[in-house]
């Protein structure tokens, strides 16, 4: 498990491209027949990529979290960004098509990920945060969450947002999670940009062609930087940072938050003209 320590806004002006990427860009989460893991000290979130190709993969217990099993003190949201697969949680098996979401509550001891025979390998993206109580493991199939249409074609940011784990949907202690897909011809996500000082956020970009990239903005609104992001790469966005991007091709992304509250609309917006 790789560890990323927390940073403050004062760090950003002195960072070069290599350091920005080392601190905020998560690469190589999805390796065949492996479980990739990054622990960020921003709200103690763990990001995992699970890619069962030739065999099922168990969710391991990492020594860095000092638990008897991974979900002893944690909860997790799982979204499949690959072919159809299954997640077995304490003996109950759930089938996840591409874009489907499974919430797994605190206290679940055995979690196993597998791809369906004959299908493209599944690729499970997992976001985990500390939890103070247990909520039921719950599956939401792709497109069956709370759907919100945002943006405008005239500003190239028309997008469909599917909320899965949120205050009025699947119950969790603190995770909020869903998938956003841009409409054809739209390339911008989350613009105008915002911050939410009460929650960190992580993005996983997917369905991006291999030769395409997303230019992701981060940093304080008046001190922005950018990262060039490829398919199935993730961004760690501290609570003080904007999190917005524009692609060279259409794409989707998994967004996940953890922190002080679960109110999706608790954010501080910034006009485009005020950004620097």
Name a few traits of the molecule.
about 280 residues; mainly beta; Jelly Rolls; seven-stranded mixed beta sheet; about 5% helix; about 45% strand
Could you walk me through the main structural features you see in this protein, from its secondary elements to its overall organization?
Keywords: Isomerase, Metal-binding, Zinc. Belongs to the KduI family. One of its GO terms (molecular function) is zinc ion binding. It is an enzyme of class 5 (isomerase). It holds the Pfam family KduI. Strand 7 and strand 8 form a beta hairpin. The model has no long low-confidence stretch (mean pLDDT 94). The two termini are 35 Å apart. The radius of gyration is 18 Å and the shape is globular. With 276 residues, it is mostly beta strands. It has one domain: Jelly Rolls (Sandwich), CATH 2.60.120.10. A 7-stranded mixed sheet has the order 1-3-4-11-6-9-12, with no helix packed on it. A 7-stranded antiparallel sheet has the order 2-21-18-23-15-14-13. It is 3% helix and 43% strand. The protein is built from 1 helix and 24 strands.
